[in-house]
């Protein structure tokens, strides 16, 4: 099935589905990024504020600003652990409301593949980051079905369901991320994968988390008959890795990338000729 857009307009459902995974990935990404203290941060597509909060806890930033197009996400972030220490506002990643070179670091956590105009978003992140500053991102590896929703999606396919593709699936590959950063005229590009393993208390915990209201997959499940849903759940139960006591545990993988903004136009032109 072709890609279907996803509107993350239910912050509580998003937190239930993705919160624990986001909080597991963010510290690993931050350690790899190795940002300097007292940096001015922009969290692009901040969602409920997980990366912003992680930066505040682990990085001693000067300022942290988070933007997201969804009002519900910004409202949740403004009430969350980073409230009062980070500034959150509704804004479009492709039209950032900031002056040139306003930040030392611009990062996009688990969102870049969902942005239709990715090249424009990258140009904006580069524009608002000072020369010598960092632009970075990480996304779930949807291309290999290694996102937190991967086990559910794989089981549904085996059940015979035509599961819609996640927006930007092909662009979640490391090779595609590198091309995107190269096209944004960034330098010193580095990539890595981040794997995290988490557990759900039982199947019900997994099911509630992985069938959020905003997901096209959830809507497909809701359209099934009761018998079809029961058989689907049985199929998924049989294929999920389980531990003693009914605990469900598996890993997900994110692809991460970081780069530097050239310090000058002269340096940029030199790099292009090299």
Explain this structure to me?
With 274 residues, this protein is α/β, with parallel strands linked by helices. The chain is built from ten helices and seven strands. It has helices at residues 11-33, 50-58, 71-79, 118-128, 150-158, 174-183, 203-210, 216-222, 226-239, 265-273; strands at 40-44, 63-68, 87-90, 103-109, 129-140, 187-200, 248-260. Strands 3-2-1-4-5-7-6 form a seven-stranded mixed beta sheet, with helices on both faces. β1, α2 (50-58) and β2 form a beta-alpha-beta unit.
Please give a handful of descriptors for the protein shown.
274 residues, alpha/beta, Rossmann fold, seven-stranded mixed β-sheet, 10 helices, 22% strand, elongated, disordered C terminus
Gist?
This protein is of the alpha/beta class and 274 residues long. The chain is built from 10 helices and 7 strands.
| Biggest sheet details | 7 strands, mixed
- Uncertain runs with pLDDT below 50, 5 residues or more? 266-274
What would you say the CATH architecture of one domain is? 3-Layer(aba) Sandwich
Mean pLDDT: 91
Helix share of residues? 25-40%
Strand content: 15-25%
Report how far apart the termini are.
42 Å
H-E string: HEHEHEEHEHHEHHHEH
Q: Record the strand order, biggest sheet.
A: 3-2-1-4-5-7-6
Shape, principal axes of CA atoms: elongated
Assigned CATH class of one domain: Alpha Beta
Number of helices: 10
Instruction: Report the radius of gyration as a whole number of Å.
Output: 19 Å
Number of strands: 7
CATH superfamily of one domain: Vaccinia Virus protein VP39
**CATH topology category name of one domain:** Rossmann fold
Structural class: alpha/beta
């Amino acid at each position: 099935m072709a890609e279907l857009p996803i509107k993350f307009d239910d912050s509580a459902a998003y937190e239930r589905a993705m919160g624990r995974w986001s909080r597991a990935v963010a510290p690993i990404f931050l350690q790899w990024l190795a940002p300097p203290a007292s940096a001015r941060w922009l969290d692009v597509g901040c969602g409920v504020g997980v990366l912003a909060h992680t930066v505040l806890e682990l990085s001693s930033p000067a300022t942290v600003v988070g933007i997201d197009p969804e009002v519900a996400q910004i409202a949740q972030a403004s009430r969350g652990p980073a409230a009062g220490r980070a500034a959150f506002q509704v804004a479009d990643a492709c039209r950032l409301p900031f002056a040139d070179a306003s930040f030392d670091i611009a990062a996009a956590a688990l969102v870049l593949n969902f942005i239709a105009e990715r090249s424009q978003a990258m140009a904006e992140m580069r524009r608002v980051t000072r020369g010598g500053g960092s632009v970075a991102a990480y996304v779930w590896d949807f291309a290999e079905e290694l996102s937190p929703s991967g086990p559910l999606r794989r089981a549904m396919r085996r059940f015979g369901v035509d599961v819609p593709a996640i927006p930007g699936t092909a662009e979640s590959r490391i090779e595609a991320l590198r091309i995107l950063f190269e096209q944004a005229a960034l330098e010193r590009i580095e990539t890595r994968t981040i794997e995290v393993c988490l557990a759900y208390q039982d199947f019900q915990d997994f099911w509630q988390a992985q069938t959020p209201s905003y997901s096209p997959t959830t809507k497909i499940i809701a359209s099934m008959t009761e018998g079809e849903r029961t058989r689907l759940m049985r199929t998924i139960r049989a294929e999920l890795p389980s531990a003693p006591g009914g605990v469900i545990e598996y890993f997900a993988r994110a692809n991460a990338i970081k780069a530097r903004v050239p310090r000058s136009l002269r340096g940029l032109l030199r790099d292009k000729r090299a």
